[in-house]
Every structure is written in structure tokens, then in C-alpha cells.
Design brief:
CATH superfamily of the largest domain: Periplasmic binding protein-like II
Pfam families: NMT1_2 (PF13379)
Subcellular location: Endomembrane system
Strand order of the largest sheet: 2-1-3-10-4
Keywords: Cell inner membrane, Cell membrane, Membrane, Signal, Transport
Protein name: Nitrate transporter component
Helix content: 25-40%
CATH class of the largest domain: Alpha Beta
CATH architecture of the largest domain: 3-Layer(aba) Sandwich
Number of helices: 17
Organism: Jeongeupia chitinilytica
Number of strands: 12
């Protein structure tokens, strides 16, 4: 069992939990969807990491990302484990009702995947191109993701486009909550899906489909889930928001130890969290994907703090992809949106109090699966440079109420 060693008030330079620094709200309600990457919230709860920072965490399992969105907007939840792209979609009013949102920190990188039906996966493994496979059949194939503007939608669309497939025109994209995806694949309703674990491991274990690519192969060390809340929560409860960020930073640091992940997999298997057996959770949490090997970047929770900084360039990537797929009007100032959402100043305070190193710049660069380099400097030019893209803004993305 983990025993915090660097989290007493005396050991945190510049931080105390009395007087003007005391959290304005001490019991915080956090939502999560049953996925392996909700592990930081579960670890923070089980290890009671908030106690030193003057807060208590209550966790509330949600059936879908739409439920997370709705309860954040209504105030029923103070904060949540959320898709990066969900936060940006809500801010823009293209993923349901509009609300001013905040990203306090990134909770993890990598760790998602795409699974196809056995038939498609076997043909792909035999060297037949996916575009050729789909074109050989007269019907429109159906691929699921988890939220209209979410990370899984963007990974799925990006990967299909690299296969020469337009994800909005050549196939039918639908929204399904992660726990329902394996059954939908088994019933023939779906041909494939992108989601988080362990729902790909479940599909393979049940013989319904096969994982064909991991998200870290699409974008190595991509941003995935974030600690999200409304911006007015930060404005009204800045000390509580900072204390919550510190608590989750400590949880993420603890989870970067693989032995700790083994322990966390047991917690996650409980009925109040994921509710699936630990052997379905643990291997992929440790980077073991069986026949696919361990060549893809491991799910990262901390990485010396490099995972958790709310990089502006990460948010800008999603905005550029919304522009690419016709979801974002031309008059939106992408830089202003990213600066409003990503709470870099608050994160700096929390990380500094814990002695966590911070990057020299709020921008970072990456090279994706198609060889295109992303550094956040020109999201419009980046979006315009893709051959497969929407011609113009086509309006909202639907509200994802599943």
C-alpha cells in the first residue's frame, strides 16, 4: 500500500491548507466513466490523497460522456474525468449545450485503441487495404466513437483518413457508450469502434473483434483524458481547484509505477468502478497487448509531470481537427479559446507546490502516423493541408445523448 511521503503541509513549499489558502469547498463530487484511465481518480479516492490538501473526493460513476457533460453543466458534479475533446466541444456549443469550461490538467496520454470485427481485422491482417475492404461491399459500414467532439472520434477519423476513407462520407459514424461497444460489435450493428480500455480487451476475450491499432501509434503521447470543470467553479473556488489538481497530480505520480498499476487494476475491477475482472484490465494498463506486442507507447499518467501540463498546443489540435471536419466556423479565434479553457496559471501553482517540473513552453510538437508534424503554431494551415477533409462548416456535431 502506498503511503504519501511528500504531501504533508510542512513539506509543500508555499502551500498550506489553513487561512486564505484553505479550499472554499472541502467535499468535491467527481464524475468518471468506467475506463482504465479513470485510475487517477480511483487512486486518489482509495489512498485518500485529498486529505492532506484539505479536500475529500466523492466519486460518481456515469453511464456515458453525455451524462458527464450534462452533470458538469448543471453543477451536479464539481469536476470530472473527461475526454479532452468533450471539454472543447462544450465550450464551443458543438457537443451539446454551451458552457464555459476549464481543463485543470491532463490525466493521461495514450492507452486507447481501435477494434474491428473479426472479419475486417482478419482481412486487414492478410494485407488487404481497409478502403478496398469497405468498397467491396455495397452497404455503408458503421463505426462507433464515444462523443461527437471527443478524443475517440478524432482518433477514429484521423486513422480512417490515413486509410483513404472519409470518416463522415464513406462510413457512418455513431456514438455509443464504451461499455456497450463489444456487444454492439457482436450483434453486427458495428463494424468497428474507437474507445478506451478495457473495452477492447473485453471484445477480444469474448471473441467479438480484434484490436488493430493503438492510439499511441496514431499520435505518440497524445493527450487523452483531462480533469475538467466549469470555469465558474475555478473562479468561485480557486483554492479548491488547486487542491484538487494537486491531489490528482499525486495520484498520477503514484500510477507511473507499474507495481502500483497492478494494485490499481484490482481496485478498478470493483463493481463501483469498471466492474470487469482484473485480468481484463491489468495487461493493457501495463502495456501488454498480446499478439500486438508492447511496441506502442505505454499509457502514461505522470512522466515526471510532462503528461499533466495543460498544453495549449494540445487543445489547439482538437480545434484544428474540428475545422478540418467542418465543425468549427471560420470566425472562431482558436488561440483565444485554448487560452480560456486551459488553466495553465492554476496548474503552475499546483505543480510548483508539489515540486513538479513544468515545461518551458505551453506548446509542444509531435509527429503523427501520417508523418505530419504538429506544433500548434498554425492550426488553420494544419487543417487546410489535409487532402481528406470537409469542404465547409456543416453546423453542430449533435449532442451525443447516448
Amino acid at each position: 500500500m502506498f503511503h504519501p511521503t511528500a504531501s504533508t503541509p510542512e513539506s509543500l513549499p508555499g502551500y498550506r491548507i489553513t487561512g486564505s489558502d484553505a479550499p472554499e469547498k472541502t467535499v468535491l463530487k467527481l464524475g468518471f466513466v468506467p475506463l482504465s484511465d479513470c485510475a487517477p481518480l480511483v487512486a486518489a479516492k482509495v489512498l485518500d490523497l485529498g486529505r492532506t490538501h484539505g479536500i475529500e473526493i466523492e466519486l460518481y460513476r456515469q453511464p456515458s460522456w453525455a451524462a458527464v457533460r450534462d452533470k458538469l453543466i448543471s453543477g451536479e458534479l464539481d469536476a470530472a474525468h473527461a475526454l479532452y475533446g468533450l471539454v472543447y466541444g462544450v465550450e464551443l456549443g458543438i457537443g451539446g449545450p454551451q458552457a464555459d469550461m476549464a481543463v485543470l490538467m491532463t490525466l493521461n496520454q495514450n492507452g486507447q485503441a481501435i477494434t474491428l470485427s473479426n472479419r475486417l481485422a482478419e482481412a486487414l491482417q492478410a494485407g488487404i487495404g481497409l478502403r478496398e475492404l469497405l468498397a467491396a461491399e455495397s452497404r455503408r459500414h458503421v463505426f462507433a466513437q464515444t462523443f461527437p467532439t471527443g478524443t475517440h472520434a478524432m482518433w477514429l477519423y484521423y486513422w480512417l483518413a490515413t486509410q483513404g476513407i472519409h470518416p463522415l462520407d464513406d462510413v457512418k459514424p455513431v456514438v455509443i457508450p464504451p461499455p456497450q461497444m463489444s456487444d454492439a460489435l457482436a450483434s453486427g450493428v458495428l463494424d468497428g469502434y474507437c474507445a478506451g480500455e478495457p473495452w477492447h480487451a473485453v471484445a477480444e476475450a469474448e471473441g467479438h473483434g480484434r484490436t488493430v491499432i493503438r492510439s499511441g501509434e496514431i499520435w505518440p503521447d497524445h493527450p487523452e483524458k483531462v480533469l475538467a470543470c466549469r470555469r465558474d467553479f475555478v473562479a468561485r473556488h480557486p483554492n479548491a481547484a488547486r487542491a484538487l489538481t494537486m491531489t490528482l497530480l499525486e495520484a498520477c505520480r503514484w500510477l507511473d509505477d507499474l507495481e502500483h498499476r497492478r494494485e490499481a487494476a484490482g481496485w478498478l475491477s470493483g463493481p463501483g468502478y469498471i466492474g470487469r475482472a482484473s485480468p481484463l484490465i491489468m495487461p493493457r494498463l501495463l502495456g501488454d497487448y498480446g499478439r500486438l506486442g508492447n511496441t506502442a507507447p505505454l499509457m502514461r499518467f505522470f512522466g515526471g509531470g510532462s503528461v499533466n501540463y495543460p498544453y495549449l498546443s494540445d487543445g489547439l489540435w482538437f480545434l484544428g481537427q474540428y475545422r478540418r471536419w467542418g465543425l468549427l466556423p471560420d470566425d472562431v479565434d482558436m488561440q483565444a479559446v485554448a487560452r480560456a479553457i486551459n488553466q495553465t496559471a492554476l496548474y503552475d501553482e499546483a505543480a510548483s507546490a508539489l515540486g513538479v517540473l513544468q515545461p518551458a513552453s505551453p506548446m509542444r510538437s509531435s509527429t503523427l502516423i501520417d508523418g505530419r508534424r504538429w506544433d500548434g503554431s498554425d492550426p488553420q494551415g494544419y487543417a487546410d493541408g489535409f487532402e481528406i477533409r470537409a469542404d465547409a462548416c456543416v453546423g453542430g456535431a449533435g449532442d451525443g445523448r447516448r
